[in-house]
Amino acid sequence: MSQHRHDVVIVGGGHNGLTAAALLSRAGLDVLLLERLDHTGGAAVSAQAFPGLAPRLSRYSYLVSLMPEALMAELELDVRLASRSVASFTPWSRDGRHGGLLVERPEGAATAASFRALTGDDAEYAAWQRFYAEVGTIAEAVAPTLLSPLPREAELAARVDPTLWEALVHAPIGALLRERFADDTVRGVVATDGLIGTFADLDSPSLVQNRCFLYHLIGNGTGEWRVPVGGMGAVTDGLARAAAQAGATIRTGAQAQRIVPGAEAVEVAWQEAGRTHVARARRLLSGVAPWTLDQLLDSPVPSYAPPIGAQLKINFLLDRLPRLRSGTDPEVAFAGTLHVAEDYSQLQQAHADAAAGRLPDPLPGEVYCHSLSDRSIMAGHPGHTLTYFGLHTPAPLFERPGAKEEAVRRAIDAIDAHLAEPLDSCVTRDADGTPCIEAKVPQDLERDLAMPGGHIFHGDLAWPWADDTERLGEPAEQWGVTTSLPGVLVCGSGARRGGAVSGLGGHNAARALLAELG
């Protein structure tokens, strides 16, 4: 058994663990990072999903919003994030008419015309503009605080209209959307940002849907979700380089087995190449989910249920983009986020069905075509890649045999409802004639990435601020990375401002640790 000593051990080599490793190594600390897989990156990786075909897809995570530009600059990441010319396109069918609600970036005359074609006048677009101007003031207040110690709620609320703050932060968002918007489709487009990776009724008193909505709104103060050129792997490859160049030791194929917390030193044991290794460090940062961390303790905490993920991810490789019934140019329709079966009423019915143990039909979801923004991922393939992200598909639905295949069929049916030709006719076949379709349900994420329950946020998101009465005495408390374990901080998506591809958990844990160690 080999023995090691370091200043810091980081368990988990996802993007947050790599961010922390780079920052701490740059500060002169001796850092050891352990990753159980044979590569770093966690969910933010690129891969050849289809044998014999060169395109490299963003296999799990797929867009970047919350990673602050200031953090990317500090780490000197050589990564370009491409803006999409279209924010969203929502095909619709009413009274035998087929159309599409187009939201440009920036919004212009075509956006106004598409609202008018859907609703019959300009009132709904005016309501849309007012709503996003108002909620944008919350984004402007919160975004600059993400790389600083947690602000108090009162501090942020004082910068925003009190009626809006109350409606978005203290009451279910469903009521706000029904008050502000009259059209079912428009309501649904707004509501989806509260449901990405979050299984909740829009009227849930838990407000988890409100917190998810806010996180989708605050990225760099604009809420813009951008495409990483070269795929998600370009982001984490850049972070890994930054960490290694700063002197961090990165060990892949290193499966953590036991953690013994301690105020003076933390001990961690891991398996690597058939041998057991043990390291002692002044501090340990956990990039794994809080539930997983608890299972690694030398004296495990009492058993409790892991979080439950609720998404369906499907990667498609296409020979060409399909034509739409609306006649909209596919390179416009698929350039942003294409919403299907996501009217407000459909979202609520889908949640009710899933909560009752039924797979929703139609299945709500959204589609992204990264190859329209970044041809480099296609590696010479003349077609396109599509990513589908389905909502309201909690893990228990996939415990029945054949449920995953049925969910894929329903997702394709929901897309086909708006196409002038079946999606299947555009899907690339591999050398064996197999359609290039890859689906991932929560059980797959748990197996592939050790995400408990397949929950992409490691658990429910928290507000990115502190309550007015919350204790903020220690650095870990001030930065939102505390655990109940001496010598252990959380640096992953389970951190107070974790979730999404942001680096915030890693950055904030690094800052807290440096403050602790003086």
Helix content: 25-40%
| Number of DSSP-assigned strands | 18
The share of residues in extended strands comes to 15-25%
Question: Quaternary state, please?
Answer: single chain
Secondary structural class: alpha/beta
> Which CATH architecture of the largest domain is right?
Alpha-Beta Complex
Could you tell me the CATH topology label of the largest domain: Polyamine Oxidase, Chain A, domain 2
Gyration radius, in Å: 23 Å
Count of the domains: 2
Average pLDDT metric = 95
CATH class categorisation of the largest domain: Alpha Beta
Shape field: globular
What's the N-to-C terminus distance?
A: 32 Å
Per DSSP, the total helix count is 17
Low-confidence stretches: none
The largest sheet is: 7 strands, mixed
Descriptive notes:
By secondary structure, the protein is of the alpha/beta class. It folds into 2 domains: 2-43 and 66-77 and 229-307 and 454-517, FAD/NAD(P)-binding domain; 81-228 and 308-452, Polyamine Oxidase, Chain A, domain 2 (Alpha-Beta Complex), CATH 3.90.660. It is 32% helix and 19% strand. The chain has 17 helices and 18 strands. It has helices at 15-26, 69-74, 109-119, 123-142, 153-157, 162-169, 173-180, 184-191, 208-217, 232-245, 290-295, 330-333, 344-355, 403-416, 442-449, 475-479, 504-517; strands at 2-11, 31-35, 46-47, 57-58, 81-82, 86-94, 97-104, 227-228, 249-252, 254-260, 266-272, 275-286, 312-318, 337-340, 365-368, 384-390, 437-440, 488-490. The strands form 4 sheets. Strands 1, 2, 9, 10, 11, 12 and 18 form a 7-stranded mixed β-sheet that branches. Helix 1 runs parallel beside helix 10 and helix 1 (15-26) runs parallel beside helix 17. The protein is globular, with a radius of gyration of 23 Å. The protein starts with a strand and ends with a helix. The model has no long low-confidence stretch (mean pLDDT 95).
